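User: Um, any thoughts?
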Amino acid sequence: MRSKTLGASQLLVTPMGLGLAALGRPGYINLGHGEDLNYNYDAAAMEAQAHTVLDAAWDAGVRYFDAARSYGNAEGFLQSWLAKREIPPQAVTISSKWGYTYTADWQVKLPVGQKHEVKEHTLPVLQRQVAESRGLLGSHLDLYQIHSATLDSGVLTNQAVLRELARLRKDGLHIGFTVSGSRQADIIRKAMDIRFDGVLLFATVQATWNLLEQSAAGALQEAHAAGLGVIVKEGLANGRLTARNASAGFRTQMAALLAWAENLNTTVDGLALAAAANQPFVDVVLSGAACVTHLQSNLKALDVAWDDALAGFSAELCEPVEAYWEIRSGLEWN
């Protein structure tokens, strides 16, 4: 894979990166997540699995890896792999995120009312979590992102937080933000108004874009034009855009996806990720694979020859925005 700069930053990324949301903790909302981990939630076994997937990604040319404080032990697994492989900071680009605290205590099923992660976009949380991330990742940490910035959390108007982010940027960290939910476009445009010393505070935006949820495309195009690096997450809609999706309500769409994939000698997930990778505003698409087989299938996206016919087909698969996010919110942690 050829590397490119991430927006106007000097960070180098490959067209596909690896996100560790499904590798760092026992529970996640991707379809079939437990199966991917062989239902073995021992911490040492999970670290070994993470290293195996990271090895496969590295050997395939992936040089961008994304973690978060709330992804269980993801930062720790990533750090131990970097040390084992003796990968120097300049050979790889690493991002992480702050704003959610992991609270599942290494459990998959939680009592009613208990959450897997708790969101808090305050200055004390930022200061605590950036110290934790740096303590694990050290000089490998290149990009630090607000985890799921929203209008409701007030993080984009919290001057104490914004000043601290500007200080961290001055200290050498690139600063970004991620978005989720039906108002992604509004949040992106709000964030693009924030400047310190006459310069945009944020170097990157990470957003959900996939064949089913394309509502942020216009705002992402604006961000790209303004020099922000654009990272796509959830390109497979948490497994809904894979052959694992057996939902009765998705049979027609799945049949069409399978037919296109077969015609192109690729996989459903490869086709879906190719759709994201070929958007003109996208710099890097994250694979969320939790096993080597699925990573290899995801990487087939890079071999898909994109054309106008595929672009037209992809436009037909969009779901109503609110419906998409309602389905996502109902996905089971497994």
Notes: The chain has a mean pLDDT of 97. The two ends are 32 Å apart (CA to CA).
